[in-house]
Amino acid sequence: MSQAQLVWFITGASTGLGLALTKRILARGDCVVATARDTTRFEPLLSNPNTDRSRITVLELDITYPAPVVKDIVKKAVEHWGRIDVLVNNAGVGGGVGPSEEQGLEHMMKVMTINYGGTVNVTNAVLPYMRERRSGTILLYGSRTGYRNEFLGPSPYASSKAAVHSYGETLSAEVAPFDIRVSVVVPGMFDTGLPMPIVGTPIADYDPAREELRKRVENRHRLPNQGDPVKGMDALVDVVKGEGRAKDKGGVLPLWLFLGSDCLVDVKARADKLKKVAEEWADVGSGLGKDD
Question: What pTM, to 2 d.p., does this model score?
């Protein structure tokens, strides 16, 4: 392995965007530690004659494992490759959809523990190695639902991803003195086959809204121009390496990486709405200091 090659550590690498990213990393000549709860799901990739097995290591990892276990798994990766250049916190769950009252606190906290807690868990295991080298890049997968969430259904998932957004923003300031870069990756709707069951204990008052939700879920795969995982993950690699689409960005890693035209539309709409509300209600919220 040359020093020019990056070593990527990816959680949830056996399916969806994680698998697409793993394939793009290998195609572009870097090395990857691909982790998943079930490593047998890597067999199609590993058995492909076009896969360079010398540049991929597969490790079993559940991001909700106790912290000492996660640290041991990360240590194995570092012992194998000598370092981790890029951590990709991709693993997570959709958690299903439905009225938040029907889903209940226990279910919502389960999703939060996986999507937010698991991200923090793995990041804390990798950070000591990056701090020691005074170098590294950390990518945390958020979601456009952190910004587009004013409809019935996504409360557990959207809440967990909003927590990831806030964590990543704070983390970026904490680790900047160690020359560690952080970006919150915000994908739009990509064609990954993520399951979206309706969950929770039905409450009659929500029956009409739940039926509309069911129809939306059934029709979501028919939406036009869904994101292509290969294109999306190629763009992500471009940004990390300062190549391709990002070659004229001066090597800067943005704090937020919005992927997909739908995501960009939703983020801009939320920004406009926040600005409008702040301006309309400024006379109520301002002038509240002791010296005003």
Answer: 0.95
Contact yes or no for 184/257 (Cβ under 8 A): yes
Q: Give me 83's structure tokens.
A: 């370092």
CB neighbours of residue 1 within 10 Å: 13
Residue 176's contacts (CB-CB under 8 Å, 6 or more residues apart) are none
Tens of pLDDT along 255-289?
999 999 999 999 999 999 999 999 999 999 999 99
Work out the end-to-end distance of the chain between its first and last CA atoms, rounded to an integer number of angstroms.
63
Give the residue among 154, 157, 126 at the shortest CA–CA distance from 139.
Answer: 126
Choose the catalytic residue: 129, 141, 157, 167: 157
Look at phi and psi of residue 29 and say left if phi exceeds 0, alpha if psi is from -120 to 50, else beta: left
* Rounded distance between C-alpha atoms, residue 157 and residue 112, angstroms: 8
Active site residue 141: no
Phi-psi region of 137 (alpha: psi -120 to 50; beta: other; left: phi over 0): beta
Rounded CA separation 183/160 (Å):
17
Q: Which two tokens stand for residue 292?
A: 């005003």
